[in-house]
Structures are given as structure tokens and as C-alpha cells.
Amino acid sequence: MPIIPVLYSNKFNELVLLKCLFLLVALVGCSPPGEPVKCSTKDSNCTVTNSYGAFPDRTVCRAGNVVYPISEQESVSILSAATEVQRKIKVVTHFSHSIPKLVCPDGQDGLLISTKNLNRVVKINLTAMTMTVESGVTLRQLINEAAKAGLALPYAPYWWGLTIGGLLGTGAHGSSLWEKGSSVHDYVVEMRIVSPAKAEDGYAKVWVLNESDKDLNAAKFSLGVLGVISQVTLKLQSLFKRSITYVMKDDTDLGDKVVTFGKLHEFADIFWYPSQRKVAYRIDDRVPVNVSGSGVYYFTPFRSTLSSVLSVIRSVEETQESLRDTEGKCLNAKLVTSTLQSSAYGLTDNGVIFTGYPVIGFHHRLQSSGTCLDSHKDSLITACPWDPRIKGEFFHQTTFSIDLSVVKSFIQDVQKLVSMDPKSLCGLELYNGIVMRYVKASTAYLGKQEDAIAFDITYYRSKDPMAPRLYQDVLEEIEQMALFKYNALPHWGKNRNLVFDGVMKRYKNGGEFLKVKNKYDPWGLFSSEWTDQVLGLRNGVTVLKEGCALEGVCVCSQDVHCAPRKGYLCKPGKIFLDARVCARVNTKN
Ligand SMILES: Cc1cc2nc3c(=O)[nH]c(=O)nc-3n(C[C@H](O)[C@H](O)[C@H](O)COP(=O)(O)OP(=O)(O)OC[C@H]3O[C@@H](n4cnc5c(N)ncnc54)[C@H](O)[C@@H]3O)c2cc1C
Ligand SMILES: *[C@@H]1O[C@H](CO)[C@@H](O)[C@H](O)[C@H]1NC(C)=O
Ligand SMILES: *[C@@H]1O[C@H](CO)[C@@H](O)[C@H](O)[C@H]1NC(C)=O
Ligand SMILES: *[C@@H]1O[C@H](CO)[C@@H](O)[C@H](O)[C@H]1NC(C)=O
Ligand SMILES: *[C@@H]1O[C@H](CO)[C@@H](O)[C@H](O)[C@H]1NC(C)=O
User: Fold this and answer.
1) Are residues 130 and 107 in the same domain?
2) Residue range 352-356: average pLDDT?
3) Mutate which of 243, 290, 291, 292 for ligand 5 pocket (most atoms within 8 A of beta carbon)
4) What stretches pass through the bilayer (predicted)?
5) From atom 13 of ligand 2, which residue's Cα is the shortest distance away?
6) Structure confidence by residue, pLDDT tens digits, 125-143
7) Less crowded by CB within 10 Å, the N or C end of the chain?
8) Among residues 272, 269, 268, 283, which one has the least CA distance to residue 250?
9) Number of folded domains in the chain?
């Protein structure tokens, strides 16, 4: 999860708040981040990217044109025309928040079908407690519309800007070991998908899948390769209240506590600051609706931030990287975490101030946020911290889940690495440390195989793909240890390329998924070179070339895959000896 490193003091936050109030008072129109699709002539000759403006391997993706259907019927006729001429197709969402290049159609002339205008709530059934929405509806809309009807999606990602189609596509989740767990796909009871079909069926077909249809296990987490999801019906609950308290502890017994903690609190999660040897435990449970409290959680890192501030923060980080200023990074990391901690990470009693824990409020005002989506339109005075149109955050994310049965051992291995090099992970603490969330085994073919903890690790990325980063070796060792020693499963909407290499072998129903893919899209029109690679249908997720390990395009096997001229050579890991990492030699780290 990306984070604004709040340098120096709380003042910046206050400034940001003032700015937003000013904008509101001045009645200046507010609008979200940039569009992922840009076309040179109206809706044709396009490029497509993600909300960060860069894929992990920095590919630039092109498409012939983009269309914006407003109904399922329109999607059917668009798809029918495209199938007839066997065009490559991808569904693109309003903001395109996934990091990997899932959104890229092959070649130059692919078709992009945008769900930007498929954004209506279709139906709410209070008896069944279900809600049916079009696939381009954002999480923010979904949460708000459900709440108006007295309903709640119990577990969800923490960021408003995702669409239901996209978040299902990559298996997005919140944090819980209760009920069916925190993955949104496990609350899908019905879906409508428009897929390619034979000429005699008019080249396009609408599939309606409910829980009694096994294909739903593929469709509810599909990487977008089955067709256009047009509608989704989710099982909801009555709206409820929660009580949240963050408690900071040292991390010595984290490995021992982590499983019990997750079972004890319904919405538990953890921010781990491994170099500070600290952990923020989120104690978060349901409370009866008559308990008083009107808490609101606008997570600080997802708030609108002054571009000028972001630019200063980025410059400081770049300077620290180039001067190898570990001390500076550790000092700033402490500042960031203590600032976030003392401001309760953005949690407030009422939307304005925080006076102390616990904060109690309605679920829909606590479960997820993203006020930076309302940043000022064209001026870019404020923005989401990672908006590529300004000089701001630029990072990699390594995110994977590790089964509860072995997670203690993984945590202890990371702690061993830190004890050998205590300051090595200050850099990721600038991004609020390692975010740990609980996820349960799923019936989705690409879902979690066992109950697990998802780890989100966010860290500095240089604008220069050939530049190594501080403690590159430690970050790489953690990544490879998770994957190859602990058989971690990736978050499909994040990560660098190497994480997906051979990953399908870890899914017991991977073969079932591929069968369903062939049934719905026999010509592979919704597939691309990238999806074929990650699904194990062709090689090439990782590519060996100069400097490839620096951006996670490969695991190094020769020095040239690192940055030998800058002193980074390919070496074995320190704890996980099978790892091959780019380590700095000669000089002390
Ligand atoms: C700030 C931020 C916070 C995040 N927080 C979380 C979090 O808390 N938990 C979590 O799990 N993840 C989180 N993520 C990751 C996020 O869940 C995924 O990247 C998600 O897939 C993005 O959704 P999107 O709507 O932007 O979809 P996109 O990235 O645009 O699309 C994802 C895939 O789904 C396909 N797709 C989209 N819509 C359809 C459709 N209608 N029919 C067929 N295919 C479709 C696309 O083609 C693509 O393959 C976060 C990301 C960001 C940027
Ligand atoms: C397509 O766009 C590119 C720039 O993105 C431009 O160089 C090229 O001339 C355009 N082609 C057509 C046919 O418009
Ligand atoms: C609502 O759900 C109930 C129970 O499943 C069902 O009987 C009823 O027909 C549904 N109503 C509508 C309008 O779909
Ligand atoms: C699921 O779909 C099948 C076939 O379309 C239908 O017969 C059945 O009644 C549906 N089940 C539910 C629970 O809606
Ligand atoms: C809430 O309601 C329950 C009964 O529904 C009651 O027992 C309890 O005392 C009430 N609590 C408060 C804080 O009003």
C-alpha cells in the first residue's frame, strides 16, 4: 500500500486540509486522477497505462481504439463486431489501478472496452440482502449506495478508487479470517459475462452464472481473460458499527502472536516496521449499532496532498538513495511512522479531529477511503501521492500471501535478516512499513489455497531502470524467500514480473481455470502475451538481460543482471541461501 512519507511535521497535513477546505468554499470543480487511455485522434490510435503511469518492466502499450459502452446490450454488439474480425480485446477501467500489464492487448491494434460508463447500481434486494451493480461501479459508490439501503459489504480493499470488475479480476481483499474471509470474490452470488461466441451464436454470448455453477469459481477471479463482466451481484449484510484501536508494540514476538491475533479480532491487520522493531496492531471489532460514535477513517496516505510537498519528499528520497544515506532514511522513517501514529493514520472521531481510541463508527465510514480522488481538477495543486503527472511517489510493490501454518517461520527469517543489517528496511518504513492482512482459503480457482497472511511491501523505485536501490539485496532476498521457500501466492494486481514465474503450479485448480478460459474465450481474444505468460501457457515472464534483476524482470544468475559497474554483483542470500540477489560488494552497505 503506497504511503506519503510525511516529512518534518504535521503542518503539511494541516496545509492540505486547509487547501481542500478552501477549494470546497471556492466551489471549484473537483475531479479524479488522469485517464489511463490516451488517444491521438478521437478514441483511436491509443496508448494505455496504469494509474502509476508505468508497468513493472516499463512496457508502453498501444491499442487501436477505445469504446465506452453504456449497457450490456452495447457491450454485446461491440464484442460481436470484434469477435467477427478476431481482434484482441482488453477491458480497461476508469483509473486502471493494477500494477502489472493486465490491461495491455497484444499488438498495436487491439480494442479497449472501458467500463467507465458502466457505473450504475442495478438492483438492491433487501430480502435477499444482495446488491447488483454494473462492473464499472467503484468501491466508493458501492459502499455508499449499500449504506443508503442499510447494507454493508463486510470486507473490502482499503482504497475507494477500484472498480468491482477490476478488483474481482485480481482477487482484491481487505483483512479478516472471519466468515468467508476478506476477499470480495467470496461474496459474489451472481455474475453476467459477455464472451466471444461462434458465428451461429452471433459472435457474442451473455453468460449468467450463479453459485450453483462451478464456472463461477473461475469467473469471480478471472484476470479479465473470460470476457467482459457486465454485472455482479454481491451478498451483503446489515450495516453495522465497528470499534478501532491501534496499539504499538515491539516486534519480538510477532511471529508467535500473529495467528491468534487474526482469529481474535474480526478486522485485524498489522503495520510492521521491521527496522524499528515495532508493530502497530489494529484491534478492530464489530459493536452493536446503539453504541455511540460517528468515526470516519480517511487513511492519511490516500488523502489529497500538495504536489509541492510531494516533490520535496521525492527529492529527499532520491538524494538519500544517491548518497546512500541510510541514517537519513531511518530518521525520516521514524518521523513518518510517528506522525502517522500520532494522527491515528487518518482515523477521526467525526471526520475532523481525533481525540483518542477507540474510534467507533459505522462500517461504511471506516472500511475504505481515497479522498485524493477528489483532488483539484487540472491545476494539480494537490493530487494522489503516486500521480505520475506530478513529481511524487514512484515505487515497486512486492505483495504475496503466506499460509498461516508457516507464517511464523517466515516472519522470523525476516527478523534474522534485519538483525544482520538493522537499518536495511528503513526504506520501506517510509511507505508505512509492511502491511499484513488476513485472507482465507477460497473457492475461486485463482484464490488463496489456504488461510494466509498477505504482506504488502512498498519501496523506492528509481526513474532510471538501471539504478540499484539501497539494500536491494535484502528486499530481493525477502521476495525470493517468500516465493521459493514459503510457496507464497502473489497478489495478481501488484508485483514485479519475477513473482509470476511458474506461479500456476501452486494452484491446485489452475487447470480448471484454464479449461473455463477456453470455454468462454476459445480464440483467446481476451488473452495477451502477458496473461499467457503468467498463466504458464508460454515462457517469458522473466527475461535475462543487462540489469534485469534491478527491476525484478529476472532473478539474477550473472553479475551483468545486476549493476556491476556500480558495485552490485549477483550473490547468494544470507538466510535463504538459494536466493540470488544483487548485493553491493567492496564497500560496506
Ligand atoms: C492506492 C491503492 C490501494 C490498493 N489497495 C488494495 C487493497 O486494500 N487490497 C487489495 O487487494 N488490493 C488493493 N489494491 C490493488 C487493487 O485491488 C487491484 O490493482 C485492482 O485490480 C484494481 O482495480 P481496478 O478497478 O483499477 O482494475 P484494473 O487494474 O483496471 O483491472 C484489473 C484487471 O481486471 C480486468 N477487468 C476490469 N474490469 C473488468 C470487467 N468489467 N470485465 C472483465 N475484466 C475486467 C482488467 O482487464 C484487468 O485485467 C490497491 C491499489 C491501489 C492503487
Ligand atoms: C498514432 O499516434 C502516434 C503517437 O502516439 C503518432 O506518432 C502516429 O502518427 C499516430 N498514427 C496515426 C495513424 O494517427
Ligand atoms: C429478492 O430476494 C428474494 C429472496 O431470495 C426473492 O424471493 C425475491 O424474488 C427477490 N426480489 C426481487 C425483486 O428480485
Ligand atoms: C442458478 O442458475 C440456474 C440456471 O440458470 C437456475 O436454474 C437456478 O435457479 C439458479 N439458482 C439460484 C440460486 O438462483
Ligand atoms: C444496546 O441495545 C441492547 C439491546 O438491544 C441493550 O442491551 C444495550 O444496553 C444497549 N446499549 C446501549 C449502549 O445503549
Assistant:
1) no
2) 97
3) 290
4) none
5) 45
6) 999 999 999 999 999 999 9
7) C
8) 272
9) 2
Ligand 1: residue whose CA is nearest its atom 44: 224
Q: Is 527 helix (H, G, I), strand (E, B) or coil?
A: coil
DSSP letters of 247-295? Answer: EEEESTTHHHHHHHHHHHSTT-EEEEETTTTEEEEEEEEEE-TTS----
Residue to mutate, 206, 207, 211, 212, ligand 4, most ligand atoms under 8 Å from C-beta: 212
Q: Is residue 167 one of the residues assigned to a domain? A: yes
Q: Is the pLDDT of residue 455 over 70?
A: yes
- pTM across the whole model: 0.94
Between the alpha carbon of residue 134 and those of residues 191, 212, 576, the distances in Å are 10, 21, 46
Q: Are strands 204-210 and 188-196 parallel, antiparallel or unpaired?
A: antiparallel
> Do residues 46 and 87 share a domain?
yes
Strand partners, 369: 159
Do 156 and 193 fall within a single domain?
Answer: yes
Residues near 215 by Cβ (< 8 Å), separated by ≥ 6? 207, 209, 516, 519, 520
Q: Which residues are 196's β-sheet partners?
A: 204
Dump pLDDT digits (tens) for 367-388. Answer: 999 999 997 767 889 999 999 9
Q: Which residues pair with 228 in a beta bridge?
A: 194
Closest-CA residue, ligand 4 atom 7, reads 212
Sequence-separated (6 or more) residues with CB below 8 Å from residue 86 = 523, 525
Number of residues written out for the chain: 589
Which residue of 45, 46, 108 sits with most ligand 2 atoms within 8 Å of its CB, as the best mutation to test the pocket?
45
Ligand 1 within 6 A of CB of 175: no
Ligand 2 nearest atom to the CA of residue 62, by list position: 5
Paired strand residues for 583: 569
Q: What is the 3-state secondary structure (H, E, C) of 185-250?
A: HHHEEEEEEEEECCHHHCCEEEEEEECCCCCHHHHCCCCCCCCEEEEEEEECEECCEEEEEEEEEE
- Does any domain span residue 456? no
Ligand 4 in reach of 210 Cβ (< 6 A): yes
- Check whether residue 126 and residue 89 sit in a common domain: no
